[in-house]
Amino acid sequence: AQKVTQAQTEISVVEKEDVTLDCVYETRDTTYYLFWYKQPPSGELVFLIRRNSFDEQNEISGRYSWNFQKSTSSFNFTITASQVVDSAVYFCALSQPDNDMRFGAGTRLTVKP
Amino acid sequence: DAMVIQNPRYQVTQFGKPVTLSCSQTLNHNVMYWYQQKSSQAPKLLFHYYDKDFNNEADTPDNFQSRRPNTSFCFLDIRSPGLGDAAMYLCATARNGVRETQYFGPGTRLLVL
């Protein structure tokens, strides 16, 4: 079974606050790939990060950071010092060698000025 | 810049009137995907082409067809649109397969009257 759970449907923060978006996944495969995409109001899905199952190193890119923990099957995404332009729907996704990519339900983040 | 292009960005059609959405890419990727995304939902894969090989998802209605005349172009044909087919249609490409990152176009928002 292949499943991605984003339990937070909506999050609202005030600008400059830190915010963490949770992603929990289920898979029976040892090889898999995890992704985060951002979907702003314009509708285009923007790729943020890809991780394979053998690389548990956390990643930081500017204000964005990702925490991959295989022990808890989680791939959480943190935005530090959030900005209004971060307002979007964020999708976590999982793919496996013999299965197409499966998206979570998405988390709508609203950053208020 | 290499990119995924979708035309038109907005499409209005009448109930039952065939409509074609187009996608082109300059990335020279082997795989092209079509997703349907309804309001506040995750993208749902309809089908994909790996080069010229067509792969249909089991639950994609027969009303939806696709053509890929060459590497750069892929079309989504909706033979008899119903009101329930109103959605955002997203095209994505990947270099080779599920191991690879998918890059999305801006989407076509379809309205059925």
Short key terms for the protein model shown above:
heterodimer; A: mainly beta; Immunoglobulin-like; 4-stranded antiparallel β-sheet; 12 strands; globular; B: about 110 residues; mainly beta
Describe the structure.
The complex is a heterodimer of chains A (113) and B (113). Chain A has strands at 3-5, 10-14, 19-21, 24-26, 33-39, 46-52, 59-61, 64-69, 74-79, 88-96, 99-103, 107-112. Chain A starts with a strand and ends with a strand. Helix content of chain A is 0%, strand content 56%. In chain A, the strands form three sheets. In chain A, strands 2, 5, 6, 10, 11 and 12 form a six-stranded mixed β-sheet that branches. Chain A is an all-beta fold. Chain A has one domain (3-112): Immunoglobulins (Immunoglobulin-like), CATH 2.60.40. Chain B has a single domain (4-112), classed as Immunoglobulins (Immunoglobulin-like). In chain B, strands 2, 4, 5, 6, 9, 10 and 11 form a seven-stranded mixed β-sheet that branches. Chain B has a four-stranded antiparallel β-sheet with strand order 1-3-8-7, with no helix packed on it. In chain B, strand 5 and strand 6 form a beta hairpin. The radius of gyration of chain B is 13 Å and the shape is globular. Chain B is mostly beta strands and 113 residues long. The mean pLDDT of chain B is 94. Chain B has strands at residues 4-7, 10-13, 19-25, 31-37, 44-50, 53-56, 64-67, 73-78, 87-94, 103-104, 108-112. Helix content of chain B is 0%, strand content 51%. Chains A and B meet through strand 5, strand 6, strand 10 and strand 11 of A and strand 9 and strand 10 of B.
Present the secondary structure layout.
The complex is a heterodimer of chains A (113) and B (113).
Chain A: E1 3-5, E2 10-14, E3 19-21, E4 24-26, E5 33-39, E6 46-52, E7 59-61, E8 64-69, E9 74-79, E10 88-96, E11 99-103, E12 107-112
Parallel strand pairs in A: 2-12
Antiparallel strand pairs in A: 1-4, 3-9, 5-6, 5-10, 7-8, 8-9, 10-11, 10-12
Chain B: E1 4-7, E2 10-13, E3 19-25, E4 31-37, E5 44-50, E6 53-56, E7 64-67, E8 73-78, E9 87-94, E10 103-104, E11 108-112
Parallel strand pairs in B: 2-11
Antiparallel strand pairs in B: 1-3, 3-8, 4-5, 4-9, 5-6, 7-8, 9-10, 9-11
